[in-house]
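lol so apparently i was supposed to do this last week
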Amino acid sequence: MTLLEGKTAIIFGLANDRSIAWGIAKALHVQGATLGFSYANEQLERRVRPLAESLGSTFTEECDVAKDKDIQAVADKAADTFGKVDILIHSVAFADRNELIGPYYNTSRAGFHLAMDISVYSFVGIAKAFQPILNPGGALLCMTYYGSEKVAPNYNAMGVAKAALEASTRYLAYDFGEQRIRVNAISAGPIRTLASSGVGKFRDMYKYFADAAPIKENVTIEDIGQSAVFLCSDMSRHITGEVLFVDSGYNIVGMLEPCMPADRE
Ligand code: NAD
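anyway here it is w/ nicotinamide-adenine-dinucleotide bound
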């Protein structure tokens, strides 16, 4: 018996086989979930469709999460196709590249709004559209990053957006509690993906991370997938409104061991 037998999951945010959404999709599939996918635009379709098919899914719906009608169309299609849904994965974020370099005070009003709309409100909008067709015992999951709590240079408006996403996770967890639906977030360590390539000096951050984390390794999309299974299955049935760090322990470190002049001799 697998952990997600009989469960249906809709995954937002698959772009390619490096996406965190792909790591999650593979792990949910291994545990027996039926999958549906939503992707941002037409250009991604040729990548997303074969990936979905390789996991036995023909549900691939285009959806710009900035548009309520697109989100509602995916929810309506999911209702027609599956009846009810058990798991929603939100693995979506966007900010203009020029907002992710230099001082935070240079953030433009339009850039701030865009980052908040795509990376935060969309989670709320998806929760609202799917609420009538969510099964009790279900789970919602979104992806966040430690730049929400502490300054990660260049992460800027996205750090502020992730703080709002984590707060939204708690508010949604409160709302959905009575329906016995749980809402959680995974705070992932840096992973090389399309989205992260837009963050200024990401390569340096990625390298630094493995040196600084207690477990001296970067995390993978497969690691995130395993933790997603935990948060979407009955193994975590009384956990809601939480942010689970999957970051080799990076977030617990207050200071690296100082390198004293004597050490260098
Ligand atoms: P990714 O580029 O593979 O995924 C981001 C997805 O967001 C893409 O599929 C993209 O198409 C989608 N998206 C952007 N604008 C959209 C829109 N208007 N409508 C619909 N979809 C839209 O990169 P990823 O790193 O897998 O990112 C997934 C999530 O993980 C994001 O929330 C990201 O912030 C988070 N995260 C990433 C890292 C990392 O280092 N890669 C670390 C922590 C958290």
